[in-house]
Amino acid sequence: MQKLTQRQKAVLDYICESIQDRGYPPTLREIGNHLGIKSTNGVNDHLRALERKGYLTREDMKSRTLRPTSQVLQASGTFGLGAAESANDVDMVDIPILGRVAAGEPLQAIETPMDTVRIDRMLIGTRGEVFGLKVSGDSMIEAGIHDGDYVFVKKQIEARRGACVVCLVGDEATCKYYFPEKQHIRLEPANSGMAPILIPRTDWRETSILGVVVGVYRRL
Q: Residue 30 maps to which CATH number?
């Protein structure tokens, strides 16, 4: 790995310390304030240098996705990180909980984040944008999704036939199996005692699908 300048090492140290102390990396503004760098462009220059030299990774140029690379973790004593804790943290992802979704009758979709949970990325198996919703109702119980559970949803507007999706029915959101038919869209519950929701093709929009369910969390 290429040698770091004194300022680049200071930026990396601060990122590592923030992850260790708070569980997540600092924003560009926080880095600038801590190190006396006046512009976010100046901070970005240092971050790009750290990425280029193999010390840092970042997704979609977002500061909250800053993570030290495995080489840095292996040399954790140099940068003040506990190796086991930091290696685990690299694989963690913050997921916003946006509100409730119906597993029964549709509920009004809520887009304002209520909370954030931090889980291992391996559990959701995707690097796309993921959000969480709390389930209300029992129409998906035969799929193991119960009232009060949280579903993790990968944001996308397309889904394969038979996928478990969160979609809009009018202005309200529901969780169902997705079956596009010739004349209508069939939203099938996973509860043998409930009937499907049938939506005419003329009423279906490209943006009706909010995402595909990629995980379920239940508090015991």
A: 1.10.10.10
Catalytic pick among 139, 155, 192, 208: 139
Residues 70 and 21 reside in one and the same domain: yes
Nearest CA to 169 out of 98, 216, 112, 103 is that of: 103
Final residue before a domain boundary, out of 53, 71, 90: 90
Three-state DSSP class for residue 178: strand
pLDDT over 90 for what percent of the chain?
Answer: 27
**What residues contact 76, with CB distance under 8 A and at least 6 apart?**
82, 83, 86
pLDDT tens digits, residue range 90-117?
567 778 787 777 766 555 555 556 677 7
Q: What tens digit of pLDDT does each residue of 41-62 get?
A: 899 899 989 888 888 887 655 5
Neighbours of 67 (CB within 10 A): 20
Residues in the chain: 220
**Quick check: helix, strand or coil at residue 43?**
helix
- Identify the active-site residue in 63, 176, 192, 208: 176
18 is catalytic: no
CA-to-CA distance for 27 and 39, rounded, in angstroms? 12
pLDDT score for 186: 96
Residue 184 is encoded by which pair of tokens? 């209508």
Q: What is the pLDDT of residue 66?
A: 73
